[in-house]
Amino acid sequence: MLLDSPICDFGWPAPDFSLKDPAGRAFTLKEQLGGKGLLIAFICNHCPYVKAIGERLAEDTKLLMSEGINVLAIMSNDYRRVPADSPENMVRFAAGYGFPFPYLVDEDQSVGKAYGAVCTPDFFGFNKDGALQYRGRLDNAGMGNPEGRTRELVDAMRQIAETGQGPREQIASMGCSIKWS
């Protein structure tokens, strides 16, 4: 089912969490909330929308991370219902796209629910204080040709890193619904 992410609730405080990657390494929000902010992307392996942006997501997050903005991805789908989203497949999927960020398993789906994530991809851009400043899309290319695209997420995260505030005009991300158990 195709869904759009809700509009940004500016200032909403990021709930803390502790999640593990498929190798068992734990990551918490508090540890990842850097001096220039944090991008959290709810993604999964099987969604055609995530696959369509995979290379651009890797490219854009490498750029953000090189500028000191932290990035995490979270997979909240029920992978028992959708085996393509299993932790083993997460490792292959991340390697295939060259994701530079930790890709975490939301085993009990509590983090996806706490954040109100609705679709994959669903982007949450937080400032250094953990206040939500971006809930938009990656870029204006969607599933189409990325030539000449506007990097809306990169631009927003740079603005958040510099000013603590996100752009007031944001276009919702869209993608497949999260597969709840």
Compose a concise summary of this entry.
With 181 residues, this protein is α+β, with helices and mostly antiparallel strands. It is built from five helices and ten strands. Strand 5, helix 3 (87-97) and strand 6 form a beta-alpha-beta unit.
Please tell me about this protein's structure.
- Helix content is 29%, strand content 20%.
- A 5-stranded mixed beta sheet has the order 6-5-4-8-9. A 3-stranded antiparallel beta sheet has the order 1-10-7, covered by helices on one side.
- The protein has a single domain (2-177), classed as 3-Layer(aba) Sandwich (Glutaredoxin).
- It is built from 5 helices and 10 strands, in the order E-E-E-H-E-H-E-H-E-H-E-E-E-H-E.
- Strand 5 (70-75), helix 3 and strand 6 (103-105) form a beta-alpha-beta unit.
- The model has no long low-confidence stretch (mean pLDDT 95).
- The protein has 181 residues and is α+β, with helices and mostly antiparallel strands.
- It has helices at residues 29-32, 48-66, 87-97, 110-115, 152-163, and strands spanning 2-4, 18-20, 26-28, 38-42, 70-75, 103-105, 119-120, 122-126, 132-134, 174-177.
Name the helix and strand elements from N-terminus to C-terminus, one letter apiece: EEEHEHEHEHEEEHE
Task: Estimate what percentage of residues fall within beta strands.
Answer: 15-25%
Give the second-level CATH assignment, the architecture.
Answer: 3-Layer(aba) Sandwich
SSE class = alpha+beta
Counting DSSP E segments of at least 2 residues, the number of strands comes to 10
Q: Uncertain spans, ≥5 residues at pLDDT below 50?
A: none
GO molecular function: antioxidant activity; oxidoreductase activity
Protein name: Thioredoxin family protein
Domain Thioredoxin: 8-159
